[in-house]
Amino acid sequence: MDKITIITGTVGVDAHVIGTKIISRVLRDEGFNVVELGAQTPPEEFISAAQETAADAIFMSSLYGMAEMDLQGFKEKCLEAGLDDLLLYIGGILGVMRHDFNDDEEKFKKLGFDRVYPPETDVKVAIADLKNDLKVKGGKV
Amino acid sequence: MIKVKQTKIDEEKFMEMRKQTLALWPKASKEIDLDEAVAYQQSLPEDKSFVKVLQKYSAEGKMGLFPRQGTPIVENEIELLQSLNSVGVRLFPFTTDSYTRNLQLDKAQAGLEESIKTGKAKLNGYPLINHGVKTNRRVIESCAGAMDPRCSQKANSLVGEYAFASGMTAMPASFFGWIAGYDKKATVEECIDTAQYLGRLMGYYAEQGVIISSDLHGWLPNGVVPTYVNVATQIIEALTAAHQGCKSVHPQANFQGNYVQDIAEVRLFRKIFRKYLDKYGFQDVLIPGIIASQSPLYAFPQDVGTAYGYICYIANLAATAGVDACSVKTIDEAIGVPSIESHIQTYRAANWIFEVVRSQKIEVNNKDIDLEVAMAEKAIDAIMDKVYELGDGDITHGTIKAVATGVLDSPFSINIHAQDKVLGVRDLSGACRLIEFGNLPLPEDVKDFHREKVAAREKAEGRKMDYYVSIDDFWAISKGRLLGTRN
Ligand code: B12
User: Fold this and answer.
1) Whose CA is nearest to atom 32 of ligand 1?
2) What is the CATH number of the domain that holds A74?
3) In A, which residues are within 8 Å of B124 by CB distance?
4) What distance in Å separates the CA atoms of residue B249 and residue B13, rounded to the nearest whole number?
5) d(CA A23, CA A90)
6) Which residues of B333-362 are buried (b: 16+ CB within 10 A; e: fewer)?
7) How many domains does one find in chain A?
8) Burial of residue B451 (number of CB atoms within 10 Å: 0-12, 13-18, 19+)
9) Quick check: B105 and B130 in contact, CB under 8 A?
């Protein structure tokens, strides 16, 4: 059976690397194939990495509050690149200042993300979701 | 081939470099005239001088607050500064937004315009270049206190030019901060080169009698590690800036959360920076005071009660250790850029503690603190000796080689040139110990000290001290514990 491939990294010029390093390590230890792009990864680099590695999902992080600006048109670019089946998950701190997570969820779903996670979500939650989502799509697992 | 060297950049070459820097933004050369900027700085009152404000705290035995602040809309920024004034803040780090820090000035402009349009901050800081010198001066003049902007490697030289021309009087020439947490791809040499520019610019102002102080951040401890490498790299930053003519440095004690270890760190700071500056001929470089950074770079508690607990604990620690100012994060830290109200409530709590604890003038003396000081000094001396040896006496060369070989190293860093082979956990008392030494040139007795402490916890908990324990410990502090447990 093919290993599931997941791309990780923080988007834009977000420098917060600790979380995405930990996520990458946990995913690897859980048996996934991980493409670790690290911090400060431009949106386009996520797309080209997904194409090159035929990835199943992106676990994107953003802590610095400016992801919304970074990700305008991201889903459209994924579709243009033929990445129709690629699952898009995002987590971290998605807005600037104290705000309601429900607003983040709505915004990022509109931007084309399949799942949006509140601050400090355990990656294991997303791993369970991923297995489900892939099953629904009739893919690997 | 390494091109940088530690010696002072000569003036002609520096003026050439400045031209290139100012060419990065069309308005820069129109807005910034060095002679006019120096004259403006000379005209500013004493409370705008970072050195003077910090020295005053130190002389009076008081403690200043050093917040995180910076928001895009000018009126909101002024309101924020004045509100912070009302709770006694006189030292202001000035956070520039992440687009500015990475020289993406058109994005900073778009974010600024969007912020103004919606009335909400869409940038995570103040776009210091886009606002321009005139507006910056208006902002700085609107409140009492001295300013100290924050940046990353890419935009650092231009931000420095703008900052000093606008009346700011401190800034980090602190390239290890970038390696630890801000710049993914910049090489160590590029980072040093950029830091030297800032040091040289500070040197130029100093020659005209305007003393601008450099923050020292060092290789920020991103995880549960003792601060040996952090302190050694702060010393390296101090010496690098001093070679360029910078005349004042203020070190930052990065508290990791253990009383004994953190008090020991401040005690060591009182002598070790002076020791190294004097040793290399910089007796004339001032150390106006020591600032503690209240927050280890761990996740902060999400709920208000736990956040207060954490903040007050560190405020107490800072007051007991006797630092001159403390960077206190707010109850909103885990949530997002803090609001004015959360600043005010947080700082009232911190001020209460500073005042009450400091007024008692408690002398803390115990053997554990002495032992930590001795271990740290040995470790730092060994690291410094090795760096100088690698560089054949040139600190910049030594540093480049030391990072490449892991002689300088620290975990969870952003920069791809870091080795990331070092790891730590807490011992049973909550002090940070190394479980992976990587290639750090630590003396054998220091290593043994760490091994013993780690073994004791291993025995007490019946589990191996590994990566996952390190992560458990990393999260613990936000959950109201020092030692992580597996759940
Ligand atoms: C450490 C830290 C830094 C360090 C980073 C060091 C490094 N090497 O990464 C330094 C000092 C460099 C830094 C810099 C800055 N920071 Co900072 N930083 C933090 C801090 C204190 C902790 C972040 C952290 O590492 N958490 C621990 C890790 C393990 O958690 P994590 O990243 O959240 O990831 C975990 C989970 O969330 C989850 N997760 C994450 N992503 C995803 C994705 C998916 C799909 C899933 C399922 C799960 C998931 O799993 C991860 C592993 O467990 C936070 C505040 C806080 N949260 O406590 C501020 C914070 C994130 N920083 C902030 C800001 C603004 C900045 C600066 C602009 C400077 C400043 N303070 O003003 C610069 C920006 C630099 C840049 N270009 O981005 C703000 C963001 C504001 C906002 N969103 O409104 C915060 C919230 C502080 C604040 N309140 O102002 N920072």
Assistant:
1) A19
2) 3.40.50.280
3) 64-66, 96
4) 24
5) 12
6) bbbbbbbbebbbbbbebbbebbeebbeeee
7) 1
8) middle
9) yes
B304 in contact with A, Cβ within 8 Å: no
Helical (H) or strand (E) element with B487 = none
Q: Does the beta carbon of B98 lie under 8 angstroms from any beta carbon of chain A?
A: yes
Nearest CA to ligand 1 atom 86: B336
> pTM for this structure?
0.95
Q: Mean pLDDT of successive 10-residue segments in chain A (141 residues)?
A: 90 94 96 97 97 97 92 96 96 84 93 95 95 81 53
Question: How far apart, in Å, are the Cα atoms of B159 and each of B32, B59, B257, B417?
Answer: 11, 31, 33, 25
| pLDDT, tens digit, 9 for 90 and up, residues B316-325 | 999 999 999 9
ipTM of this complex: 0.90
Neighbours of B421 (CB within 10 A): 14
Cβ–Cβ < 8 Å for B351, B88: yes
CA distance B343 to B437: 39
Is position A141 within any domain? no
Q: Which of B263, B262, B322 is nearest to B64 (CA)?
A: B322
> What sections of A10-72 are H helices per DSSP?
18-29, 43-53, 67-70
- A99 is annotated as an active-site residue: no
Q: Point out the residue among A15, A38, A69 whose CB comes nearest to the CB of B111.
A: A69
Asked whether A23 lines ligand 1 (CB < 6 A), one says yes
Q: Which amino acid belongs to residue B259?
A: Y
Q: Could you report the per-residue pLDDT of B119-157, keeping only the tens digit for each? A: 998 898 999 999 999 999 999 999 999 999 999 999 999
- The full set of domain ranges for chain B reads 11-359
Q: How does DSSP assign B49-86, residue by residue?
A: -HHHHHHHHHHHT--EE------SSHHHHHHHHHHHHH
Per-residue tokens: A47: 């797309």
Residues B11-359, CATH architecture: Alpha-Beta Barrel (3.20)
**A16 counts as catalytic:** yes
Q: Which domain holds residue A57?
A: 5-136
- Do the Cβ atoms of B302 and A40 come within 8 Å? no
Distance A93 CA to ligand 1 centre (A): 7
Chain B CB within 8 Å of residue A1 CB:
no
Q: Is residue A91 part of a domain?
A: yes
Q: Which of B323, B287, B326 is nearest to B51 (CA)?
A: B287
